[in-house]
From TrEMBL:
<protein>
    <recommendedName>
        <fullName>Thiolase-like protein type 1 additional C-terminal domain-containing protein</fullName>
    </recommendedName>
</protein>
<dbReference type="InterPro" id="IPR016039">
    <property type="entry name" value="Thiolase-like"/>
</dbReference>
<dbReference type="GO" id="GO:0016746">
    <property type="term" value="F:acyltransferase activity"/>
</dbReference>
Length: 102
């Protein structure tokens, strides 16, 4: 909570849907329910800006949507991160541990 700038005694809910990643089974459209709750909240309070984060079924596939009634202060821009990705892919990964020790 500290990292988000939220005090421990803040009375607001941290999530709109409880923070669970699925309804008993993986990939059961949970993110759409979060988006629907977000839209309902924004309709009630148009000054809100709400961030919905979701997992695409793999930990490597994340999505983020920021919803509100006003355009962003800084317009969205497309970045070319290909050089960064290229440098990541060039790094040598450690060998996997075949048998845990400890």
């Amino acid at each position: 909570m500290k990292e988000l700038g939220i005090k421990e005694d803040d009375p607001r809910d941290l999530t709109l849907t409880g923070g669970l990643p699925f309804f008993g089974t993986p990939l059961s459209n949970y993110s759409l329910h979060a988006i629907i709750n977000t839209v309902e909240s924004i309709r009630t309070n148009p000054s809100l800006r709400v961030m919905v984060i979701a997992n695409g079924g793999f930990n490597t596939k994340q999505s983020i949507g920021i919803y509100g009634t006003k355009p962003p202060i800084i317009p969205w821009g497309v970045r070319d991160d290909s050089k960064t990705q290229e440098s990541i892919l060039k790094k040598i990964l450690p060998e996997p541990v075949e048998k845990a020790n400890g």
